[in-house]
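Q: My labmate handed me this sequence with no annotations at all. I'd like to see what the chain might look like in three dimensions before we decide whether it's worth expressing. Could you predict it?
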Amino acid sequence: MRVGVAGVGRIGRPHAERLMAHSDVAEILVQDASTDLARSVAGDLDLRYVPTYDELLQSVDALVIAATTTAHAELLQASVEAGVPTLCEKPISHDLQRSREVVALIHQRNVPVQMGFQRRFDPGFQAAADLVAAGGLGTLYTFRTTGHDPEPATEAYIAGSGGMFRDFSVHDFDALRFVTGEEVVQVFAQTTVRKWDVYGRFDDCDTAIATCTLSGGALGLLSYTRHNPLGYDIRMELFGSRDSVVVGWDPRLPLRSLEPTGPPLGAEPYPDFHDRFADAYSAEVDAFLDVARGRQPVRSTADDAVEALRAAIACDISSRENRPVALAEVT
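A: Here is what I predict for the chain of 331 residues:
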C-alpha cells in the first residue's frame, strides 16, 4: 500500500514515522505547502517527496491529512472526490456549514474517512467506554474533564487555532460521546485571560470552564488552561452509582499531592500530547490502515467531528452571551 501524508509539521511527521513501521505500507509519499519542509522531511526519513497535492492524490492508495487546520476541508473534499481513504486530523473545518458540506460528500461518495480523535484509541479511554457499556459504572452522576497544556502556543498557531473550545475542547466532547454513548445537550461556558495576553489579542483565552449536560441527565465540568508548569495533563473522571474511575491517573500524571501520604510527583511527567498519547496515535494509524484495506469500519467518523464541533460552537456562544446554550440552537 502506498500512503501519502499531506502536511509534515508537528503532527504529520510523527504520522509518517509511524507508517514507516508497518509491513502493509510499501511506500510513503510526503507533500506540504512548504516545499522546503517536505523536502527536508523526505530526506531525513528517506521517503518520497511529491511537489503538489494533486500529484499526491494520484499516487497513493490511502492518505493522511495533517496540514494546517484551515486547509483541511479543501484537502479532504479533494481526497474524497478522488476516492482515496483518508485519515484527517480534526477539525474538518471550524465552520459548521462547511463541515457539513464535506460530510455530505463523504456519504455521497461512500469513501472511508477517519477523523483524528486519538483518545478513542487510548487504552484508558477505551477501558472507560467498556466499563460504561458493560454497566459497571451504574448510573452516571457527574463527570469532569481536565485539559492543561504544558506551555502556551505560538502566536502563529493561536491565530489559526479557532480558539480554546474548537481547538481543545472538541477532543473532550468527542471523548465524552465515545465513553458515555450519550450526546451533549447543553453547555454553559466562561473564559478569561489570566496570564498570557497573546490569547486575548486573537479573541481567545488561556483559561476556560464549561458545565455540560448529557442526554441521559448527567452533569459535568470541563476545565482548561494553556499552561501547566508540571506538564501535559489530560484526565476524565466519572462518578457513578457502582464505581468512581479516572482516566489519565498514572505515575506520569503532572499533578502534586499535598497529603502527607499522597503519591509524589512522578520523575517524568508527560511533556506534551505526543508523549501522553503515543500508544493511542499508533493504534489510530493501525486502525486506519485496516479501514483503508476494508478490514474494519471507521471508528471515528466525520459525523462525530461535526457533533464535537457543535458542542464547541455552543461553548463559544455561551461564553460570548453569558448564558446556557442548548445544542439544539447550533444548527
